[in-house]
Amino acid sequence: MIKNIGPLEDKILEILWDKKQATARDISNSLEEIGERRAYSTVRTIIKRLVDKKIIAERTDNDERTFIYIPLLSKEELEKTIVGSILGELLTRFNQSTISYLAEGLSDNEKEIKKIKKKLNEMKRNG
Questions:
Q1: What is the third-level CATH fold of 7-71?
Q2: Which end of the chain has fewer CB atoms within 10 angstroms, the N or the C?
Q3: What is the pLDDT tens value at each position of the chain, 127 positions in all?
């Protein structure tokens, strides 16, 4: 269950989403280009965390000497997973408070309320 990603993980993911696939060296060089100079070992450690979280996959190149990293989730899929995980935990632990907070936050946003009602009606019809 993915609950969060750190700032460096986010930057690495942005690079991978942009490039579609990259080696650790490519990622390290891209980070330097955007002013995020990090030790290569640090970049490798963060990449390993993303692999362990099953957000990216690794495969070897044709010579089987270099790992190539590929995103397994799109940005939208990752965001939805994180929001779902956090919201699910909040609803489990603080059900009434979470619902009240969300309702109060939406009380002045008629457009969002309509979208939620539409989604609830669709779910009701389909489920």
A1: Arc Repressor Mutant, subunit A (1.10.10)
A2: C
A3: 788 999 999 999 999 999 999 999 999 999 999 999 999 999 999 999 999 999 999 999 888 899 999 999 999 999 999 999 999 999 999 999 988 888 888 777 888 888 888 888 888 888 6
